Amino acid sequence: MIHAHRAPLAIAVLLAAALAAPVTVAAASTTVVTVTHGIVLDTAAAASGTCGFPIELHTVGTEISIRQYRSDGSLRAETIVQHYDGYLLNPANGKTLSSKVSGPTRDVYNADGSITETGSGATTRTAPGAGLVSGFIGHSSVTLVPTGEIDEEGFPVYDFTDDTFRGQFLGNAGICAILA
Q: pTM score, two decimals?
């Protein structure tokens, strides 16, 4: 089971886009929003958990959100294309590691209440002399099906179905020696 407000990256991206100062261009049933902003995470949770010491993420990027609406005004689909350049930082010793994220994510809001999310792209983390030490390159797809339940914060609860990933996933283990 998954809570919709905690799961897909796209939902977090939507929140970030809503908080930034967007430039909006509207067409008949489509809106396009371009947002440029920075992200600083005091703790990059997955990397910190893998390495056993705090790691921060500092990055700046652009997201383009293309929303398509049905004739009744409800959201039918959203595509978010993103590109971020930045670095991971071990605040204890000042060591850094380059980080780049690029690719689109598409959410389709189906008539039955389910959400189909697909994403393609790459996250690469490279170190001088070591090359690619962490990241993934590939395509993922998942369908979120509403359970009919609402969590304690009032958000719908979803189950994962049809969860697939094709590509290469290196994980975070390769960054530990670089940042230690």
A: 0.69
Domain boundaries defined on the chain? 2-179
Token couple for 159: 């189950």
43-92 confidence digits (pLDDT tens): 678 889 999 999 999 989 999 999 999 988 899 999 999 999 999 999 99
pLDDT tens digits, 148-159: 999 999 999 999
Structure tokens at 129: 């002399």
The letter for the amino acid at 121 is G
